[in-house]
Design brief:
Blueprint: H1 3-30, H2 34-46, E1 48-49, H3 51-58, H4 62-75, E2 78-82, E3 90-94, H5 96-117, H6 125-145
Antiparallel strand pairs: 1-3, 2-3
Helix pairs in contact: 1-5, 1-6, 2-3, 2-4, 3-4
Length: about 160
């Protein structure tokens, strides 16, 4: 395997571990999967919007947003209201419960994201590969330490 292929393989493996670690952190802090969390954050940020606006804000496909909105409405984090300007769409607003969840969890998740991003910059390919391997090992250790904690009390986890 060439050093370029090794770097790509390490980056892919690393991204998978980061996503798994982040997903577990989101579940632990919010009781939501990571896509529903992004949808809720977009709804809170936009305040009053359509599903299409959330797609554009979050970068998530419309079908995933629609399914996520149904779950978030069921959990009481958002409400969907009639759109008087367009009968084909609904207006999405976040509830007080959804706003409180974002206000409580967002600082903890930003701190977690900062810890993940707090890695030294590297210039050459060998140093990058060594750094990725080290980072991958550290993420593996973190994943082992945080093996599937139960969802927080008082919030539903996704089916």
């Amino acid at each position: 395997m060439t050093s370029g292929e090794m770097i790509f393989a390490a980056i892919y493996s690393l991204s998978q571990k980061i996503m798994l670690l982040y997903s577990k952190a989101v579940l632990r802090e919010t009781g939501l999967n990571w896509q529903d969390w992004r949808i809720l954050r977009a709804a809170v940020s936009l305040q009053s919007c359509r599903a299409q606006d959330i797609c554009e804000e979050s970068g998530i496909k419309k079908s995933h947003v629609s399914n996520g909105l149904a779950r978030l409405e069921e959990y009481g984090h958002i409400a969907r209201l009639e759109n008087k300007g367009d009968k084909r769409s609904r207006i999405i607003i976040s509830t007080e419960q959804g706003q409180n969840l974002v206000a409580r969890a967002e600082p903890k998740l930003h701190e977690f994201e900062a810890q993940l991003a707090n890695q030294p910059d590297v210039g050459d390919a060998d140093a990058l590969l060594n750094s990725l391997r080290s980072y991958k090992d550290e993420l593996g250790r973190l994943l082992d330490d945080k093996a599937d904690p139960p969802p927080p009390q008082g919030r539903m986890s996704n089916p």
